[in-house]
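Comment thread on ticket #2218

A.B. wrote:
> Attaching the input chain for the structure job we discussed in standup.
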Amino acid sequence: MQRNEILTTGAVEELIANGHILVIFEDYVLKLDAWIDKHPGGRLAILHMVGRDATDEIKASHKEKQWKTMKAFRIGQKPPGIWINRTPPIRGGVFLKDDDENPLTPVDSIDSSEESSLGDSIGDMSEVSLPTSLSSVGSDMGDEVQKVESEPTWKDMPGAKTRQSSKVFVGNPSAYTAWAEQQDIARDTVSYPPVDPATQHSIALKYKALAERVQAEGYYTCRYTEYAKEAARYTLLFTLSMIALSQSWYLTSAFFLGLFWHQVMFTAHDAGHRAITGNFEVDSLIGIFIGDFLCGLSIGWWKRSHNVHHLVTNHPEHDPDIQNVPLFATTPSFFRGIRSTYYDFNFPWDKAAEILVPFQKYTYYPIMGIARFNLYLLSWLHVLSDKSSDIGGSTAWWIRWAEIAGMSCYWYIFGYLLLWKTLPTWGTRVAFVLVSHVVTMPLHVQITLSHWGMSTSDLGEDESFAQRQLRTTMDVDCPVWLDWIHGGLQFQAVHHLFPRVPRHNLRKLQGLVMEFCEDTGIPYTLLGFEDGNRHVLGRLDQVGEQVKHLVNCQKYMAENGVKDLH
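C.D. wrote:
> Ran it. Output below, let me know if you need it in another format.
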C-alpha cells in the first residue's frame, strides 16, 4: 500500500473492520496499530478517534514537532473533500467488510446492547406520537399524563430558548427518558450552528486559523516568572501550616495545609498537559512530585481520565468526569443505565440512584467537601492496576513506580509522621483531616462548575471539535485580582480549545475566543462564580425533578401491571 495512494472510504472501513486502528490526520490516513501501546496519552485517547478526522484534536494536544512524527504512520490519503466521520468502535460503531453480509465489530468495541433500549423506546414512542412539546396530547391521555413546568434555569443562558410547559407519560419510563433526552437535543439544535458536514467544516477552518494565530502570537510561551510567584505563595502557605503546627494550633495548621494542596495542584494540572516545559519526562516528574508526593494523588490516573475528558467532554457513556451515579446525575441518559467505556463498567440505574439523585442539589456541596477522599481511592486503584501502564506507554514504565514511591512517601509523612506521631488525640486527628480536606472543596466545585451545568447531548460525529468544546464547557467570570484563587482554570472553555496553553495566558486568549464565537455563531457561556453555581444547582434540580417523574412512571406501571418497553 503506497503512502500517497488515495484510499476509498470502503477500504478504510474494511481495515477498521479487521481490527486496525485508523485515524484521519490532515489529508492522510494513519494506521496506529504499532503506536497505540506506546502513546504517552494512553490507548483510550486514540480509540475514541478511530474512523474520525482527528486533526483538530491531535493538533490541540500535541506540539508541531510531534505532528511531523506522524508521517511514519501514513498508509495513504483520504478521499478528496470533507471526511464524513464514522462512529469509533469503542463507542459502538460497527464496520462492514466488503465481502461480508454481516458487519463486524472491531477490537476494543463495547457491547452496545445496553444502548438498544433507547432505540426501542423511540420506536415505540412513535406509536403514541410523542412530540417535542407534549401539551397537545394532555386531554387525550387522562390520568396517564401530568404537567411539568419549564425550568427557568436554562432560559437566561446565552443562545438558549425558553421551553414551553410539557407533559410526560407516567405509564412509560422508557418513553419519558427518551423524551427528556430529546428535549436537551432540541435545545442545543436551536442554540448552536447546525451539525451538517459543510457548516462544521467551515467552523473547523476558522478554528484552524485561530490556532495558527495563537501559535504566532506566542500564547504557548510559558512565563516562568508566574511560576516563581506561585512557588512563593505555595511556600508561604506550607510554612504557615508548619508554624501553626509547631505552636499546637492544629486546626489553623490544617486550614493552611488545605490551602497549600488547593493551590499547588494548579501547577500539577499544567504539568499534566505538558504546558510547563513541553518535555514529557520533565513535566511528568513535576506532576509526580506535586501530585503524588505533595498531595497523595496519582497524576497518571488524572492524565488518563483527563485526556478522555478533553476528547469526549460531557458524553454520558464516555466522559468519566460526569459518571457519578448513584450520587449525581447530570443528564436523563443515566436513567437507562450506561456502560462506561472508561471504567469498563456498567452504571445501573437502581434504587440507590432513585433515592439519592432527587436530593443531589442538597448533597452537592457536602460531597464536594469530602471528594478528595475518593481521589485517594481512585489514585491507588490506578497505580495498582494494569491501567497504570496506559499512561506514558511502554517507553515510560518508570512512571508507575515513581507514582507508587511518591504516594507512599506522602502517606508516610502525612499519615504517620504528622497525624499519628505529631497530633495528640484521635479527636484532633479526625478534625485535622476533615478541615484540611474540606478546605480544598472550592477546587472540586470549580472543576464541576465548568461542565455539570452544560450540555450532555450527543449531536453526532460530524460536530466539530471546537463547537463541542464550547457547547459542553463554560467559563467563570471574575476580576483579575481573584485569578490566583481560581488558578487561571476559570477559563475552562478557552482551555478546552487550547489545552497546552499555560493557564497564565488564558485570560489574554479569552478575547480571541470571544471573537471566534462571534464569527462562527457558537454561543460562548460566561457566568460569574455565583451565577455559575446557581446554574449547576439548577441543572441538578432539573434532573432530580425528572427522576421523580420517572419514579411516578414506574409506580404507575407497577400498580397497573404494565411492562416496560426495555
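A.B. wrote:
> Thanks. Noting for the ticket: The beta strands are 22-25, 28-31, 74-77, 145-148, 166-169, 338-340, 345-347, 475-477, 526-528.
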